[in-house]
Amino acid sequence: MSPQDQPPVVQSIPMDRIEVLNTRERNRRIFSEIVANIKAIGLKKPVVVTPRPHRDGGLRYLLVCGEGRLKAFKALGETEIPALVVQVSEEDALIMSLTENIARRQVRPLELLGTIEQLRDRQYGAREIATKTGLALKYVQGILTLLQNGEQRLLVAVEKGAIPLNAALAIVGAGDDDKAVQAALQDAYEAGTLRGNRLFDARKLVERRAKLGRSLGHNMPRKRGEVSSSTVVRAYQEQVGRQKSLVHRSSLAQQRLLLMISALQRLLNDEDFANLLRAEGLDTLPQYVAERVWPDGRRT
To answer: What φ, ψ does residue 176 adopt, rounded to 5°?
Structure first.
């Protein structure tokens, strides 16, 4: 009986012997729930691994699925984990890992892009990717077209649901012809796929794309070229970082404004100080500030 014909068995595997093939970021709340659940009732479902020879003469294991359970076990201080050991090739193990991620109900958009790109980089065509992942062929073909053309902005917008894939492909097909791009948006509107706020958001996206380029990063080239999922993720993270910084600066400015308003209110409630300001002709304030110092319209 060949190794591939051997039935899978459950074994207790040292976790330091397990290598994660397709690692991904996890929601902290969901991960905490996984840890608490395993701590309370134990591991209900073993992870899946496939063995490989190690240079020390023993075995190492490639993780096919169950990264969350593996990390939870480590967080609980365990050194071994129950694992279903299957005999598959490294290629098949990666495919199983990628498709298992897609099968999850709450797969994140950028993870889905990364999965399609990894399969493409392994020389799989659109039809093969669609077959292996269960995704629609037209969807896979569209995403591959956007990846090939370096359309980071459109990729993220499509995966967020801000713009339909067919509209994004029409924009790509229009190239740099603004009239053709606007015509593509009009066609999407007439087809009913872009209405209301989605049409408004799509127009803003097209304007940013024309002004800032197809990529999300400031230092990335604007010419058409290949884009990887890692650059999309990095650009997205940079964009989130800039937004967080802007929110933080706005919060500081608001706090300083409130402090200034409070100080002015106290000073202007002092009759002697108010009389001094009147005498010097300094008893007026900019409207924006005055409305906050005297919210009821009353002036000292």
So the answer is: -100, 10
User: CA-to-CA distance for 208 and 75, rounded, in angstroms?
Assistant: 43
The C-alpha atoms of residue 225 and residue 163 are separated, in whole angstroms, by 22
The pLDDT tens digits of the residues spanning 33-89 come to 888 888 888 888 888 888 988 888 888 998 888 888 898 999 999 999 999 898 887
Whether the Cβ atoms of residue 35 and residue 76 lie closer than 8 Å to each other: yes
Is there a domain that residue 199 lies in? Answer: no
Provide the pLDDT for residue 1: 47
Residue 8 lies in a domain: yes
84 DSSP β-pair partners: 10, 48
Is the pTM value of this prediction over 0.70? no
Cα–Cα distance for residue pair 6/2, rounded to 1 Å = 7
> What residue numbers bound the domain in which 7 lies?
1-107
- 17: which residues sit within 8 A by CB, 6+ positions away? 54, 58, 59, 60, 61
Query: Given 42, 77, 107, which residue is the final one in a domain?
Result: 107
Domain count, the chain: 2
- Give the model confidence (pLDDT) of 73-83 as tens digits: 999 999 999 99
Q: Note the residue count of the chain.
A: 300
